[in-house]
Design goal:
- It is a single chain.
- The protein is an all-alpha fold and 615 residues long.
């Protein structure tokens, strides 16, 4: 380069900057007008910036050139310096040490603030660096690389914040780039995880003021896309030794399930990707809570839930980000979430599917969330029961009384009440004030209404509810006896449940992802931990008294239970017929099969099966 040497043989920064600026000016013309000497100098500058692995001397020259270019950005032309810009925007900062990274990002930020020239290219380069180059992606989550990864994320965030503080349109340009570069469901795990982790980091700084809603919504959408692509075969095949299977999914891993996702029969690792992403998202929510920003983040998550998750009937895990966020601030977020769901259910302005989904979420959430107090549970049960009672009153004499589909909201609402009480009845009975509230609910009036909810609601829920209600003396035994004919799983009940999802959607069923389970488990109520009102009944006679369908000999034709059971093949048919159930208790009453045979499953409820929502 044509420079003036200092007396000590070194060049000053200003000398190097002036030389680089001169080179840039001398080649900013049509090629035919560029001298061979100037072309060679420019070519050397371009070679210095080729994004390849460099030795120490080459990296020193690389840093020197970057710093000189940072001071000469006004001379860089997007027409005459294409090869130079191509090399600059192809750089991965992951390949360099701290000094080189600082020099790269200084150049990028200086280029970005040049009016109407390089903003989009600079933002694109920074977002591309959310992901490390392919050759090191497999190592960045190892402990020894953790600090290096975090340092790079911090530098990228600082550069983006600096640009957005000086260029007002930068956040809007950044939004489009993030949306375009966001990994899709079939991306490799190590493409997906660092991108999402780095992107969520933006939500915590100044950029979050502009893009918080967008960033969180994009992550929720990715979680749901992964979630709905996973069949139960993925989870059960990988995890059938986990305790929760022994307790709540007994025998479930012996069933046959499709072990692949929706990728045309090709096996994938979507469960693992979702699991790791749930860890990242939960860590981010936890960090937001520590920083005092949880309520702000929660409001956006709730909006995303409403748009993306609520009616995603195949979702099995993504909804648990709401569960976890609520557990961190139960008195604010926990209460806000369930009131939000109740309001959707009772609102006539909402569509029926959203209302049914909302009340299913209410039932599952209040049953499973340990952090929701008994007093809150009691008040919300009261609100649901009052809604059901008013509905019965309004429908009195209606011509649609024998058409269950016309009353699907009522059945979903009352089934939610019974489901919650299956989990919470004993804890409510332990508090005298709440016990009094429970005994004053018009449950018997609803049960005896011509709408006849016991004929339509899921029989396993009905049976468990009645057993506990009888043990608690919440319902009168003569009433139970008068209702027994309605407890068989009628064709109407099965058809209604199949069409209207009443049998199958309990979204906070046991959480089966391995790594992220640690965020959910401490606040999750599994069926095995529930105190039932009949737990203290010891004698067989007392237990028999709770069975509203008990008969003298347990059969109609004198055959014993083994004959009625029909063998292993019949049990398989029964499993198939109820494989979309979500509630823990299995039927303890007789079920009529299509061919006239009758099956009697095990006597006491013991298992919970995961929700399998309809397609």
């Amino acid at each position: 380069m044509a420079t003036h040497e200092m007396e000590d043989g070194c060049l000053s920064d200003s000398d190097v900057q002036s030389s680089v600026a001169e080179i840039l000016e001398n080649v900013a013309k049509p090629p035919i007008m560029i001298s061979e000497h100037d072309g060679d100098l420019y070519g050397q500058l371009v070679l210095m910036l080729i994004p390849v692995e460099k030795n120490l001397d080459e990296e020193i020259l690389f840093v020197t050139a970057l710093k000189a270019l940072s001071g000469a950005v006004s001379k860089i032309n997007n027409i005459f310096h294409v090869s130079l810009l191509r090399n600059i925007f192809s750089i991965y900062i992951w390949d360099y040490g701290l000094d080189a990274r600082n020099a790269i990002l200084e150049l990028i930020t200086n280029l970005a603030i040049v009016p109407d020239k390089f903003l989009e290219d600079c933002l694109e380069m920074l977002v591309r660096n959310f992901q490390p180059p392919g050759r090191i992606r497999g190592y960045i989550y190892q402990p020894k690389f953790r600090s290096h990864k975090q340092n790079i994320y911090v530098q990228l965030h600082e550069a983006l914040c600096y640009i957005t503080s000086l260029v007002p349109i930068a956040p809007f340009k950044l939004k489009d780039i993030l949306d375009r570069r966001m990994p899709k469901v079939h991306a490799e795990k190590m493409e997906m995880l660092p991108f999402v982790e780095c992107m969520l980091g933006l939500e915590s700084n100044e950029i979050g003021d502009y893009l918080r809603s967008t960033l969180l919504s994009m992550v929720v959408e990715l979680l749901v896309d992964l979630d709905v692509s996973i069949t139960w075969g993925h989870i059960l095949k990988e995890d059938n030794n986990k305790d929760i299977f022994d307790i709540e999914l007994e025998d479930f891993h012996n069933a046959e399930y499709n072990p692949v996702g929706v990728s045309g029969g090709k096996k994938d690792n979507n469960p693992d990707k979702l699991d790791c992403l749930m860890v990242i998202v939960c860590e981010h929510i936890k960090s937001s809570a520590s920083d005092g920003h949880l309520v702000k983040v929660f409001d956006i998550l709730m909006e995303s839930f409403r748009k993306t998750v609520l009616n995603a009937y195949r979702s099995k895990f993504s909804q648990f980000i709401m569960f976890y966020a609520c557990s961190l601030e139960p008195e604010i977020c926990g209460l806000k979430f369930v009131i939000f769901l109740i309001d959707i259910f009772v609102s006539k302005a909402e569509d029926p599917i959203s209302r049914m989904s909302a009340v299913c979420y209410v039932a599952s959430y209040l049953s499973r969330a340990r952090f929701i107090s008994c007093s809150v549970v009691s008040s919300l049960i009261k609100r649901l029961v009052e809604w059901c009672y008013e509905y019965c009153h309004l429908q009195a004499g209606s011509e649609r009384i024998n058409h269950p589909k016309s009353h699907r909201l009522f059945y979903a609402g009352f089934q939610a009440v019974m489901y919650i009480l299956c989990f919470r009845m004993q804890s409510l009975m332990d508090i005298q004030e709440l016990k009094s509230v429970l005994f004053h609910l018009p449950l018997e009036a609803i049960l005896c209404d011509p709408l006849d909810p016991l004929r339509i609601c899921l029989p396993t829920i009905v049976k468990e509810f009645l057993c506990q209600a009888m043990a608690a003396h919440l319902l009168k035994k003569p009433l139970i006896s008068s209702l027994q004919d309605n407890l068989l799983e009628s064709e109407m009940s099965a058809a209604f449940g199949g069409v209207e999802r009443l049998h199958m959607f309990f979204p906070f069923d046991p959480y089966l992802l391995k790594e992220s389970d640690r965020f959910i488990k401490p606040n999750f109520e599994s069926w095995s931990m529930v105190r039932k009102t009949y737990t203290n009944l010891n004698s067989e006679d007392e237990l028999d008294d709770l069975d509203p369908l008990s008969a003298d000999d347990g059969s109609e034709d004198g055959r014993d239970d083994d004959e009625l059971a029909g063998g292993d093949d019949d049990e398989d048919e029964l499993e198939y017929s109820i494989n979309q159930m979500s509630i823990t208790p299995r039927p303890v009453f007789e079920i009529a099969m299509a061919d006239g045979r009758v099956l009697i499953p095990s006597r006491m409820p013991a298992r919970i099966r995961p929700s399998v929502s309809p397609v």
